[in-house]
Amino acid sequence: xxxxxxxxxxxxxxSEAAAPTSAVERRxxxxxxxxxxxxxxxAGLIHVKAMADHVGHYWLFGVLFGAVACAQIGWGVWxxxxxxxxxxxxxxxxxxxxxxxxxxxxxTVGLPIGPWAGEAEAIGVSDAIATLTELVLIAVAIAIxxxxxxxxxxxxxxxxxxxxxxxIAFGSAGVLAAAFGGHAH
Length: 185
Description:
Blueprint: H1 4-8, H2 14-18, H3 23-54, H4 59-80, H5 86-108, H6 125-145, H7 150-154, H8 161-180
């Protein structure tokens, strides 16, 4: 069998080499993108609620939560509108990792700014669900970009009904957390 690389005489790019070749692989990739977009939008929705909870304490926190919410919801919509590049997925996963790090700092040693600077916040249901959603989102984005990598192989099951169930589970938890979750200092 002759590869397309040998026929064309040019070297394949990484995205061409990793591009799904069968209908089943394409469908699995689309399902994973659907889940990634859903997870990003769910995290953004929870951050809309966090914005409303925090703006009264310190205006800058409201602005920052609003910016994170807009970025996550916007990224989720961007992902749903295919095709999406590896750079877009990696950039979004990197930004999401930054949000997780800020959350971790705020829950362990406290943020260096704001009315409760240096005081660790308690972990709430809403922020725990948002952070779990973001961690799964990062893993799904890595699995999409590197399907043959360590994370990608572990997320190979993420297609068809499994993808829909995962999207519904996190979507429901996120909506409930945004609707009924509170934040207290």
